[in-house]
Amino acid sequence: MSETPVAEMSFEQAIAELERVVTQLDSGSVELEASIALYERGAKLKEHCEAKLNAAEEKVAKLTLSADSAAVGTTPLDAE
Fold first, then answer.
1. How far apart are alpha carbons 73 and 80 in whole angstroms?
2. How far, in Å, CA of 19 to CA of 30, rounded?
3. pTM for this one?
4. How far apart are CA 11 and CA 7, in angstroms?
5. CA-closest candidate to residue 63, choices 71, 50, 11
6. pLDDT digits (tens, 9 = 90+) for 51-67
7. What is the DSSP string of 3-61?
8. Residue 78 has what pLDDT?
9. Helix axes 11-27, 32-72, angle to 10 degrees
């Protein structure tokens, strides 16, 4: 398990660590206390990844709106 704070991770780093956490938990060979710590870390990683994905979706939506507006000759503010 990484010691890097979740908030400082890129999406790629967080998803890679989340995959390692899931693999460890799925193995069934982790002691209870370690399993709890892994689960908690996994929950934080999941939330972080979801936030990164939501931010990316918002950017794509804004870019799409801008592109659509440019195609019809309006500005995004005119389209609202």
1. 14
2. 15
3. 0.74
4. 10
5. 71
6. 999 999 999 988 888 77
7. -S-GGG--HHHHHHHHHHHHHHHHHS-S-HHHHHHHHHHHHHHHHHHHHHHHHHHHHHH
8. 55
9. 150
Q: Which residue from 46, 48, 47 is spatially nearest to 18, judged by alpha carbons?
A: 46
Q: At CA 43, angle to CA 41 and CA 45, rounded to 5? A: 70
User: Tell me: the pLDDT tens digits for 21-46?
Assistant: 999 999 999 999 999 999 999 999 99
The answer to whether the CB of 48 falls within 8 A of the CB of 4 is no
Tokens of 15: 């998803």
* Cβ neighbours around 77 below 10 Å, total: 7
Joined tokens for residue 33: 């206390």
Q: Six-digit token pair at 45?
A: 């990683």
Residue that is written with structure tokens 């936030």 in the block: 51
